[in-house]
Amino acid sequence: MTLPYQQEFELYHYGESVCSQMVRIALSEKEIPYKSHHMHLESTGEHLTADYKKINPLCLVPVLLHHGNPIYHTWEIIKYLDHYAPGQGVRLLPDDAARRAQVDAYMADSELNQNIGLGENFGTSCAGVSIPILVQKLRTRPLWAIIWDYLTKHPIKERKFLFVMLRIFGWVPGRLYKTCIKRVALGLATIESALEDEKDYLFGDYSGADVMMTAHFHRLEDVALGEILRANDLPNISAYWQRLKQRPSYQTAIIDWHKSDWRNAMSVIYQDEPNPYAGLLNAEVKTNHINKSLKREKTCE
């Protein structure tokens, strides 16, 4: 299927979508220019229109067009870009087949995939903890509009009912939120261990894994859980996060797309205070980090 296009690469994306952030980072790191088609999701339902369904029948973002040919799924887009321009910009996948397989395996725990439920891996858990912001943005539209758009237009059954329920009840089930917090903690402890031996990035050199972590860590900042990324208990992550933020792609792909409506929702919810679940996250991180340290000591015995 070839779609109308004006530029070699065109990106349909949303400013605060974690997956959109990842693809924009990859495009920046690969130094590939693109035409932007910025979508509005919760506040307008633009992704549920008939026109957008021609681009992605599942009504998801991002979608990258290359000469009008759509490429779906974040990790597939990142791999495609690296294969398309292996010698341009930063190499996002290792040349070595064994190391590339390691990166692929790592991504299974980091990606957001419609077939992976909230709280079932690190990626969906980082997305899950931001549900209160989505609720706040859904509230900017009349209830009837949300019910109509999602129940009659969204093709994914689980999502249509989830967003309608969030708009009606205006809250996130505490059990689900705690599950996401605990899974985030496990992921952070794993990343802290992966960064040992003074590695600058997860697999030594910067890679697609670090692209994904940049977006996930930024999301933790958005939901007032960012203090954990600067904690003395996680010195490797603290230094790593600073390196990620210093890359030009962080500014161009994330900060420059940090829109006022999203920031306003953050302000209403958190009011410059820590996330109410920050204490649970800290406790879970410490527990997981201690357990991983004990396992390493046993292995070395």
Keywords:
single chain, Glutathione S-transferase Yfyf (Class Pi), Chain A, domain 2, 2 domains, four-stranded mixed beta sheet, disordered C terminus, 14 helices, Glutaredoxin, mainly alpha
Can you describe this structure?
A hairpin with a 2-residue loop joins strand 3 (63-66) and strand 4. The chain is mainly α. Helices cover 55% and strands 5% of the residues. Helix 1 (18-29) packs parallel to helix 3 (74-84). The chain has a four-stranded mixed beta sheet. The longest helix is centred in the last third of the chain and has 23 residues, at 278-300. The protein folds into two domains: 9-95, 3-Layer(aba) Sandwich (Glutaredoxin), CATH 3.40.30; 107-300, Glutathione S-transferase Yfyf (Class Pi), Chain A, domain 2 (Up-down Bundle), CATH 1.20.1050.10.
Quick overview:
The protein has 301 residues and is mainly alpha-helical. It has helices spanning 18-29, 50-55, 74-84, 97-107, 122-128, 131-138, 143-153, 157-169, 174-194, 208-222, 235-246, 248-253, 260-270, 278-300, and strands at 9-13, 35-38, 63-66, 69-71.
Tally of discrete structural domains: 2
Mean pLDDT: 92
> What is the alpha-carbon Rg in Å?
19 Å
CATH class of the largest domain: Mainly Alpha
Written as H for each helix and E for each strand, in order along the chain, the element string is EHEHEEHHHHHHHHHHHH
Binned strand content: 5-15%
How many separate helices?
A: 14
- Shape descriptor reads globular
Topology, pairings included?
Elements: E1 9-13, H1 18-29, E2 35-38, H2 50-55, E3 63-66, E4 69-71, H3 74-84, H4 97-107, H5 122-128, H6 131-138, H7 143-153, H8 157-169, H9 174-194, H10 208-222, H11 235-246, H12 248-253, H13 260-270, H14 278-300
Parallel strand pairs: 1-2
Antiparallel strand pairs: 1-3, 3-4
